[in-house]
Amino acid sequence: MKLRSEYTCPLEMTHDMLKGKWKPIIIWQLSQGGCSLSEMKKAIQGISQKMLVQHLNELLECGMIGKTVSDGYPLKSDYFLTERGRKVFEAISIMQSIGIEMMLEDDREDFLREKGLL
To answer: What is the pLDDT of residues 7-60, one digit of tens each?
Structure first.
């Protein structure tokens, strides 16, 4: 991911860092606690390993997540939210609350219960 050298407003920069279907979901997953690549792959339905790795690298590059690598064999990498990532998670959490309200208005309570959101 390459950030532009000029923006017309700060929101554009934030959008560039978060754009894509999976990045907010990855941040949400990491808000539950650090986890490995394989744990994230299992938790995020529908994402390919290639896309997950690409998005993780982009989030690392812009400082929203961090990564620790443990010695030994096999190597184990864990990803976690940085302070910047925790701030972004606050916004994502508000967005999810809005989505829950909209789903309730559309009588989609069964879906929300199934996902453990009610």
So the answer is: 888 888 888 888 888 999 999 999 999 899 999 999 999 999 999 999 999 999
Question: What's at 25, amino acid-wise?
Answer: I
For residue 23, what are the contacts with CB-CB under 8 A and spacing of at least 6?
17, 55, 58, 59
Whole-model pTM above 0.90? no
Residues 6+ apart with CB under 8 A from 82: 63, 64, 65, 66
Contacts of 14 by beta carbon, 8 Å cutoff, 6+ apart = 88
Helix (H) or strand (E) holding 67: strand 65-70
